[in-house]
Please model this.
Amino acid sequence: MIWKGRRQSGNVEDRRGTSGKGVAVGGIGTIVLALAIYFLGGDPTAILNTVQNSQVSTSDSTYQGTAEENELAQFVSVVLADTEDVWGDLFSREGAQYSMPKLVIYSGSVESACGLGSRSTGPFYCSGDNSVYIDLSFYDELREQFRASGDFAMAYVIAHEVGHHVQKLTGIMRKVDSLRSRMSEKEYNRYLVRLELQADYYAGVWAHYAKKMNVLEEGDLEEALNAASAVGDDRIQKSARGYVVPDSFTHGTSEQRARWFMKGFESGTIAGGDTFSAEEL
Model:
């Protein structure tokens, strides 16, 4: 992706060197689910909302990131700026105003309105403070653990989490969350899958306009598709357990995630991403 020398977002908060410390009170189920979300690279808001935290923040003013990490911080800031431009324009076309999310970069652990997040939870969006949180070391995990290398793989992750912000603004996230207490976990998981696939679609919509801005390089689209496939429920469960449990899926299969990203990339419209009305995912 061509990004150096381009506009960086002013909505980035760098909290590297600042850590939220404390004791999270929760059962083993919370821990297991948080780990599952980490492996999926998804949104742990539902888990974090159930955890009561007692924590304080400590800051290390001497923190200095490596040259690679600092460059990555600049990169994600450019990606965020691009999402601001794309979604601002798309919302304007619909007669609405796009409220920009914040991107919080941290190292180790972080305090959010949704609770205490950490490197183990992976990148996540917190609807409580309209912020995307990411520990930049996740880039190494994408490359080494998920075998999804390349800067556009990381761009896909940022665009997916911003997609959750779009879902909050359009009211989709609130509607899905309202179903939580009205159905079984198995039934609710089906809605979570549709929620995540829609965020993948929205990431594809952003990539559609990134191509129009002539900032995509050869191989970028393949990097994003590879990343989407790498965090599919089936692939992760197969790797971790040796078998898959479809009823426990919360993000969709590798094929579904890549396909809905591609749908967004080809369409470039908000309307085409209605995963909740789709008969087949």
Notes: The first strand starts at residue 12 and ends at 14. The beta strands are 12-14, 18-25, 52-59, 102-106, 109-112, 115-118, 124-126, 131-135.
